[in-house]
Amino acid sequence: HDHNVSSVSFMPSGDFLVSASRDRTIKYWEVSSGFCLKTFSGYHSDWVRMVKPSPDGELLASCSNDQKICIWVVQSRECKNVLAEHEHVVECIQWAPASVSKTLSLPSVGSDQTNTNASSLSTVETASTAKVNSTDKSKATT
């Protein structure tokens, strides 16, 4: 990485790591050699705050200061989906356990077709610094 590393996670096999950085990239590392084998880039335009592998290790979810969540295919480094409706920085992300979530089929980036390869994708839960819109009843007028 060319800047601060903000997140490191083991892949489910334990043989590889993924890291997220302020340099707007995600890197895939081989633990035994210490070598970077893949770099994921091109969709985040700001600091990548966190990256997490899916339970099966086939996908990565990343979140960024650019207010986006990206779902990546590990094997091809392809970004399969971008969730871009957050109003503020997305600081953390977590895959929901299969036991408590329904399986999703997400559309591919730049496509109107459903991504049928995402059958193992669980609901992506995010924490954001977004404001909570609420009504202050004490200031309401009648």
Task: Lay out the secondary structure.
Blueprint: E1 5-10, E2 16-21, E3 26-30, E4 36-40, E5 48-53, E6 59-64, E7 69-73, E8 78-83, E9 90-95, E10 124-128
Antiparallel strand pairs: 1-2, 2-3, 3-4, 5-6, 6-7, 7-8, 9-10
Written account of the structure:
With 142 residues, the protein is mainly beta. The chain has strands spanning 5-10, 16-21, 26-30, 36-40, 48-53, 59-64, 69-73, 78-83, 90-95, 124-128.
Number of strands: 10
Residue ranges: pLDDT <50 for 5 or more in a row? 112-142
The proportion of residues forming helix, as a percent range, comes to under 10%
Q: Estimate the global geometry from the Cα principal axes.
A: globular
Number of helical runs? 0
Structural class: mainly beta
Distance between the termini: 57 Å
